[in-house]
Specification:
The protein is mostly helical and 55 residues long. The protein is built from 1 helix and no strands. The termini are far apart.
Length: 55
């Protein structure tokens, strides 16, 4: 009977740790996409600035 409770506790711990690893991965992906959008925006701003200065 004690082993059943231990197995249940370890299963719950494993699933909650997996959920936290997945959530950290999603947060890292969101941060990377944010940095990518900032870099794309800076690139577009630079092109627009160079185009406006040549005309």
């Amino acid at each position: 009977m004690i082993l059943c409770g231990t197995a249940l506790t370890s299963s719950f711990l494993q699933s909650s740790l997996f959920a936290s690893v997945v959530s950290f991965g999603v947060a890292a992906m969101a941060a990377a996409i944010g940095v990518l959008f900032i870099l794309i925006g800076l690139g577009m701003w630079d092109v627009a600035k160079r185009t406006a200065s040549t005309t």
